[in-house]
Write a structure and sequence with these properties.
The complex is a heterodimer of chains A (124) and B (107). Chain A has 124 residues and is mostly beta strands. Chain A contains no helices and 11 strands. In chain B, 0% of the residues lie in helices and 50% in strands. The chains are: A mainly beta (124), B mainly beta (107).
Chain lengths: 124, 107
């Protein structure tokens, strides 16, 4: 079955760290850009970070730069998000999402597969 | 950063109604625009990509149009299962951004 399964969420104090994982199955993980997208309780979707197939390119939203690190292990079909110096405003469900390119342009893509998400709560 | 503004933020409609949701980009994004549907407690689902292409398996009552800065998502005959929140997303440039969402509720 083609799926993404996140894990690693939980309750953490402000300033703490957490590492999220996303296990991919049923498709060639190493062929896809991957992203993390989050959703604060009752709020909209926010892109967090993306990583190229071989890990050579990484992009982040400004609010997490210097605190979060996206990485991947293609041998394990896994995506990660190391989150340090966590803040209350990082509280959200974190989704792992697969990038699908539908055209020749670097901008012709969408998120065609999402995991169910893992909840991160930052609170004292 | 490209800002994506959706309107309305919410709407009430009846089964069978025609519903139109708009999404405006703060600068031109060509047709690098996707639409997603999210039901309460569920994962977002891709509906439309490239502004107007229907994702496989999505009912034909959903359609998208637009280019440049102005885009629309239309549901021609609203069904009970369409009550959800809809998000647009630009993939033109980083940081990737979503619209704030449009919640479609039952009248």
């Amino acid at each position: 079955e083609v799926q993404l399964v996140e894990s690693g969420g939980g309750l953490v104090q402000p300033g703490g760290s957490l590492r999220l994982s996303c296990a991919a199955s049923g498709f060639m993980f190493s062929s896809h850009w991957m992203s993390w997208v989050r959703q604060a309780p009752g709020k909209g979707l926010e892109w967090v970070a993306s990583i190229k197939q071989d890990g050579s390119e990484k992009y982040y939203v400004d609010s997490v730069k210097g605190r979060f690190t996206i990485s991947r292990d293609n041998a394990r079909d896994s995506l990660y998000l190391q989150m340090n110096s966590l803040r209350a405003e990082d509280t959200a469900v974190y989704y792992c999402a697969r990038v699908f390119f539908y055209g020749d342009s670097i901008s012709n893509w969408n998120y065609d597969l999402w995991g169910r998400g893992t909840l991160v709560t930052v609170s004292s | 950063d490209i800002q994506m503004t959706q309107s309305p933020s919410s709407l009430s409609a009846s089964v069978g109604d025609r519903v139109t949701i708009t999404c405006r980009a703060s600068q031109s994004i060509s047709t690098y625009l996707n639409w997603y549907q999210q039901k309460p407690g569920k994962v977002p689902k891709l509906l439309i990509y490239g502004a107007s292409s229907l994702q496989s398996g999505v009912p034909s009552r959903f359609s998208g149009s637009g280019s440049g800065t102005d885009f629309t998502l239309t549901i021609t005959s609203l069904q009970p299962e369409d009550f959800a929140t809809y998000y647009c997303q630009q993939t033109y440039s980083v940081p990737l951004t979503f619209g704030g969402g449009t919640k479609v509720e039952i009248k």
